[in-house]
Amino acid sequence: MFIIGLAGKGDHVLQNPGGQMDRPVNFHFLESMLPKVVKRRVHALKRLQVQCANIEAKFYEEVHELERKYAALYQPLFDKRRDIVTGAVEPTDEECEWHSDREEEEELAEEVKEKAAIEDAKKEEATPEEDPKGIPEFWLTIFKSVDMLSDMLQEHDEPILKHLKDIQVKFSEPGQPMSFTLEFHFEPNGYFNNAVLTKVYKMKSEPDASDPFSFEGPEIIDCEGCQIDWHKGKDVTVKTIKKKQKHKGRGTVRTVTKQVPNDSFFNFFNPVKGKNEKTNDEDSEFTLATDFEIGHFFRERIVPRAVLYFTGEALEDDESFEEEELEEGDEEVSSTTVTQKPHNWLPLLV
């Protein structure tokens, strides 16, 4: 999610004692109405506010370093998760022990289960069932369950994502510009040669010199994908079409074949670049903001809580959170300004 702004820059909505909302008033107009001596003191307060913003920026830089430190502690657990998912290791009986909230219901149905087990055993004797390796289609199931990801997913993407072994988040090294990288690890497959596909999200944590009071923490400012080394004829990000062309002079008709862009999740690795003259339009801005939101969601939710998205438990939590947010507001906002900044960037500190 991204922070939603309801007022444009330089505008402010005042409320009078009677509860009626006045027309938006420009800040500069309000300052011009102040006595000169008071205005002078307000300017001093603004200078202090800029200093506060600079200190806050340093705070978030240190938090980024703390995230990097703890990412190293999480990684062995995520590596073990990958090994179990791919079937590289089989967890012990002790590691598989888990208390379920539905345990009582399971006990009540135990007799039914025993009878079913006897029937299954008889069937297995006749036609032995192959023991699946690891947790089949672990990441693909997550993609199909999460709305934000399923909207990007196409039918031709699914066979490829069955080969996805792991998704990892890597933070920039100390002293380097603030960023994080999403790594998608694939087993050998018949679609491309890459073992890892990457997406780098570049960030900054500093107040804008032209608008320092808008600073609310680190923001994603750009992203960079990677080149996918597709096998011949396997690139799902393009499709081949045939088009008839008529010669203006002779009137003859010929058929030409060309490749055009195709909807695919793997376009995620060929992102729209940041603001420039060619992409400075509403569609590009929306695409860029959506890309940032997806990257943030992978980092903050999908990767740390993958098993809960696989089982659907995290989906229930997300739905409850969204419902609570909607109930708190008077009504759903229909016209909003979206800024390219993650909502709840620091969930442990908010």
From TrEMBL:
The keyword Nucleus applies. Residues 318-340 are annotated as: Disordered. This is Nucleosome assembly protein 1-like 4a. Residues 318-333 have a biased composition (Acidic residues). InterPro entries: NAP-like_sf, NAP_family. It is found in: Nucleus. The keyword Nucleus applies. Its main location: nucleus. It comes from the Eukaryota. Keywords: Nucleus. Belongs to the nucleosome assembly protein (NAP) family. One of its GO terms (biological process) is nucleosome assembly. One of its GO terms (cellular component) is nucleus. Pfam families: NAP.
